[in-house]
Write a structure and sequence with these properties.
Strand order of the largest sheet of chain B: 1-2-3
Helix content of chain A: 25-40%
Number of strands of chain A: 12
Shape of chain A: globular
Structural class of chain A: alpha/beta
Number of helices of chain B: 13
Order of helices and strands of chain A: HEHEHEHHEEEHEEEHHHEEHHE
Strand content of chain A: 15-25%
Strand content of chain B: under 5%
Oligomer: heterodimer
Distance between the termini of chain A: 51 Å
Number of strands of chain B: 3
Helix content of chain B: 40-55%
Number of helices of chain A: 11
Largest sheet of chain B: 3 strands, antiparallel
Radius of gyration of chain A: 20 Å
Shape of chain B: globular
Radius of gyration of chain B: 18 Å
Order of helices and strands of chain B: HHHHHHEHHEEHHHHH
Chain lengths: 328, 299
């Protein structure tokens, strides 16, 4: 048989496709799956950070019938810098969440964070206004940048890192709650509950910022971390969110929402829709939808109000205009 | 509270291995141990000696230190460990190995391919990749704090034995620090302008960068950074940032009496300062002027 150039190219593409599929089959990208038939999300309306948030949050959490009795809870807020503006998860919400979990029967609540830029964690905790909430019994703060570390084999292989050193407080927690600030992000597009987990990667090993994760790929690292440290619940702070050049220099955006979910992909997909973005266009979300949680709207059960499109989508840097959902 | 009595809590937290962890675990940290041995070197020489012994045990064959016990990879703590050993005048072999490792280590952007990328296609962060320093961990880019500690460590080690290689790395490191300075002075973690927006300086990064530049010509940028630090140190309440500010302002002969009084008030008897690296830094800051400054460069 004569092998002309066209046939050769066609055969090569075919061989490459089969090889790719075989590689995925022999060496799958992930070894865990948190997918289930349906996930639940509740979007709560909250115009401001006030004492009434605790009651609202407790009612919202009760919709999920969470099994937290006697369990140790890790709240992972997004505390990045001692900067003005909606950079960090609001401390009123964090404190309310801690007290709600104690009221629901948790034995202990640890608020854990390893700020990604600022090495002085005390400064960030002070600036975020978290200290008064730590005075309460059974609520403590752990600096995840300097906690005792254990080497862990990653349960997904997008970044090629293979393993990471992770804090004991995270690995020993019974129930991990990711509490992101709803923000745009100038490298990842958005920073929500999945991206928030960068904060469990310890600075004492990987530095400030955790630059190795950028070199190995932000989306890839997010997928690997979240496959390895499962997020059991999400409380996203979208009351005052951030748009534009997030996560540090963006502009405040009054969204007036708290998003609760028992699935981080469903939570982030919902937040993305609230921001006017198409979640399928966020790379770590579209890929995470294969194994970290439910992305599709028909698999997300809304326990409170439905998600409507925002009157105006969140502003983004020109590089991220592709995230904007096309109006149907 | 006097620094000597503050040593008590630090001494009680020393691990059997001789080192210190950050927060009371059994996992000794090279950063916490390096700072603790500096803080205890005069009044508790035996404790400091066991700390040094552990540091020597942890040193890798290539001269670098990992970040903590159990880790095997080289890290930025090599520079801090070398500063601690430099203060003793002993441990020549360990110091030489560390020095050689530091001279060879560089940020990932030092590779021509990445330099080309940052000059041509990836321009969202404003910096000159020809001016590179040291990373936190091999395989990532240069950042301010590891570069500053590396510059200090090499300057101290080569005070009497300069070589072309060491001078070249110091020059590049100093240039990198000046290149990454924030627009109005001071340093963020490593970038100054991202997507056209200037970043705000951090107190600790600014203090450590200024320590590395203490013997350099007082350029306008250094002067602006010093003013920024002087101004911001006056209002910062966190122990670590305040302590690093004192250590830095002291070498520039700035008045630090008021800051030392405030630090002493904030830390009390030291027992509430759970982070051993922070407590050790606070002791060093309170001892400024009473002992040889561990980050002083005499060239």
């Amino acid at each position: 048989m004569k092998l002309d150039r066209r046939r050769f190219l066609g055969s090569s593409v075919g061989v490459a496709a089969v090889a790719g599929a075989t590689t995925e089959w022999v060496w799958p990208k992930y070894t865990v799956s948190f997918l289930r038939p349906h996930s639940s999300v509740a979007v709560l309306n909250a115009a401001e950070y006030s004492e009434s948030i605790e009651g609202l949050l407790l009612d919202g959490l009760r919709l999920f019938r969470l099994q937290v009795l006697g369990r140790s809870i890790l709240l992972k807020p997004n505390l990045v810098e001692d900067l003005p503006g909606p950079v960090n998860t609001n401390s009123t919400l964090i404190g309310a969440a801690a007290r709600c979990f104690l009221r629901l029967g948790a034995v202990r609540v640890v608020i854990g964070e390893g700020p990604g830029h600022q090495r002085d964690t005390e400064l960030v905790v002070q600036a975020a206004g978290l200290k008064p909430h730590l005075a309460e019994r059974q609520i403590e703060f752990v600096d995840l940048n300097r906690d005792e570390l254990r080497k862990v084999k990653l349960k997904a292989n997008y970044s090629g890192l293979g393993e990471l050193w992770l804090p004991r407080a995270v690995l020993e927690s019974d129930f991990v709650v990711s509490m992101p600030k709803v923000k745009t992000h100038h490298w990842a597009g958005v920073t929500l509950s999945l991206k928030n987990m960068f904060g469990v990667v310890p600075g004492m090993k990987y530095g400030w910022p955790k630059n190795l994760l950028h070199w190995t790929g932000i989306h890839e690292s997010i997928l690997d971390i979240c496959a390895t440290v499962p997020i059991h619940f999400v409380i996203a702070d979208g009351i005052t969110a951030m748009e534009g050049n997030g996560p540090l220099q963006g502009s405040p955006r009054q969204l007036g929402k708290i998003v609760l979910a028992d699935d981080p992909v469903a939570a982030d997909a919902t937040c993305a829709r609230l921001m006017g973005f198409d979640p399928l266009r966020v790379r770590h979300l579209s890929e995470g939808g294969h194994f970290l949680g439910n992305l599709r709207e028909d698999r997300i059960r809304m326990l409170a109000e439905e998600v409507g499109a925002p009157t105006r989508p969140f502003s983004v840097l020109p590089e991220f205009r592709y995230l904007l959902a096309v109006k149907g | 509270m006097q620094p000597n009595s503050l040593a008590g809590p630090l001494l009680t937290r020393q691990l059997r291995s001789g080192g210190w962890s950050y927060f009371g675990s059994q996992q000794s940290s090279v950063e916490a141990t390096s700072l603790a041995v500096m803080a205890l070197s005069t009044e508790s020489p035996n404790a400091a000696r066991s700390g040094f012994d552990q540091m020597l045990d942890l040193q890798r064959r290539d001269g670098a230190w990992p970040a903590f016990v159990g880790d095997s990879e080289a890290s930025w703590t090599t520079a801090l460990a070398l500063c601690a050993l430099n203060g003793t005048g002993e441990f020549t072999s360990a110091r030489e190995k560390a020095f050689h490792w530091l001279v060879e280590e560089r940020g990932r952007e030092a590779h021509w391919l990445w330099r080309w990328k940052f000059k041509t296609t990836d321009r969202n962060v404003r910096f000159n990749p020809d001016k590179y320093g040291w990373p936190w961990i091999s395989g990532s880019a240069s950042w301010v704090i590891p570069t500053a500690f590396s510059v200090i460590a090499i300057k101290q080690f080569t005070v009497c034995n300069r070589s072309d290689a060491s001078e070249e790395r110091i020059r590049l490191g100093v240039e990198m620090l000046l290149d990454r300075a924030c627009v109005d002075g001071g340093w963020n973690s490593g970038n100054s302008v991202v997507y056209g927006v200037p970043l705000r300086p951090h107190v600790e990064a600014t203090a450590v960068a200024l320590l590395a530049l203490q013997d350099e010509q007082r350029t306008e940028m250094i002067q602006k950074s010093l003013s920024w630090l002087r101004q911001n140190a006056a209002s910062v309440d966190s122990v670590s940032s305040l302590a690093w500010s004192i250590l830095s302002l002291f070498v520039y002969q700035e008045p630090i009496g008021g800051l030392k009084n405030r630090l002493a008030t904030v830390i009390g008897d030291g027992r509430n300062i759970r982070n051993n690296a922070t407590l050790a830094t606070a002791i060093l800051a309170l001892k400024c002027g009473e002992m040889i400054h561990p980050f002083e460069v005499l060239r």
